[in-house]
Amino acid sequence: MLHALKLLMPALFPSWRFFDVIAPSPRIEVAMVDTPALGEPDEDAWRTCRPAPARLGPMDRIVSFFWNPHWNETLYLATCAERLMQDAGEHPGREIRRRLRRDLASQRDESQAAEEPRAAYFRFRLVFVSRQGERLRRDVAYVSPAYPTVDPQDR
Amino acid sequence: MILDDAIRLTEILLSVALIQQSLEHLFGLPDERPHYALRLILAALLIAGVQPAWICAALFVNALLILRRFQGPYNGGSDLLSLLLITALCAVHLMPTARWQEYVFGYLALQVIFSYFKSGWSKVVQADWRSGRALRDVFLFSAYPVSAATRGWTGWPRLLCAMSWAVILLELLFPLALISQPALVAALAAMLLFHLANFVLFGFNRFVWVWVAAYPSLIWLQARLEPFWQG
Q1: Using a CB-CB distance cutoff of 8 angstroms, which residues of chain B are in contact with residue A64?
Q2: Per the count of CB atoms within 10 A, which of A104, B155, B196, B203 is most buried?
């Protein structure tokens, strides 16, 4: 509880500096792998986690004003990615891993009818996007070990 | 607005915001659901006006447990202001006299004013914000735009420069709204539009609910300070 009180301090004495510096922005990418061997997956194997939709319709926006859990969780994943790079212990990595695992399970449920082959493991990596002059640059800052796609303890 | 009304209105608006957040988490990971189920019940009791002092204390403990669960705020600034509101309401009910309650609520109002003014100040001192480049970068590569179409705003640099200055001036000039009630009403309406724009462009729905919950403290503070301005 003492630690929680320490976490409370930024709320009682906030800095209120929203968007003052536009720092490199994290993207989480996922690759499915068949074995937990250490070699990195091919570049083609990485997929963007939770890509933003092409556009949102008026009804989507009205609903999301009241009910926006997926997007808020996506923002939380970006926060976890930043915390992971700040060496905030095991917690942010575990949060990313558990939520990715749940995403993969729901994708698997949707694709069951298509009988797609299922990978037993996944890895994730953090790519930080920034602007260099007029060009965007992408830096891979972290690549996770392989994790099983199913872990009963996460349920 | 008298202090008691401001406190009650804050309790109701904060509860609505907490219920909205809690419902979103009820479908989250299993170990976060109990915290938000409890928060949902406590917020409903607070709206009903059942033992507000005890309910605010329970909400404070619940907020600490949620902070520990996520090792910090889940949803950035909106969680920070939720925590500040819960703590302020909890403290208000613990204060022995009305004067001390005013100090607590005054601190809350001051922080809401700072939330705008300090944000404006931290932007205006940055050359990239003054040129509109920073807002372009937000649309270009930050994680926040809600859709690929929203990223297309980066192709309108002059508009983004104008928007940057509009945001900076709104935030920096906000404290002047305390001079009169009409000025405050106009400023709060403008800031509500600003929060709604942030929701439309970046999906920050929780910010709208939580910041609105803090507005009664500003309305109370303005009414409290008005006699001083008039001498």
Answers
A1: 203, 205
A2: B203
Cβ contact (<8 Å) for B87 and A11? yes
B interface mutation test: which of A3, A22, A91 has the most B CBs within 10 A? A22
User: In chain A, what are the domain boundaries?
Assistant: 24-49+61-154
Whole-complex ipTM = 0.93
Q: Report how many helices (DSSP H) and strands (DSSP E) chain A contains, helices first.
A: 4, 5
In DSSP notation, B76-100 reads HHHHHHHHHHHHHHHHHHH-SSHHH
Q: Is B147–A130 a contact, with Cβ atoms under 8 angstroms apart? A: no
Residue pairs spanning A and B at CB distance below 8 A: 151
Query: CA-CA distances (angstroms) from residue B92 to A24, A71, A103, B95?
Result: 41, 34, 42, 5
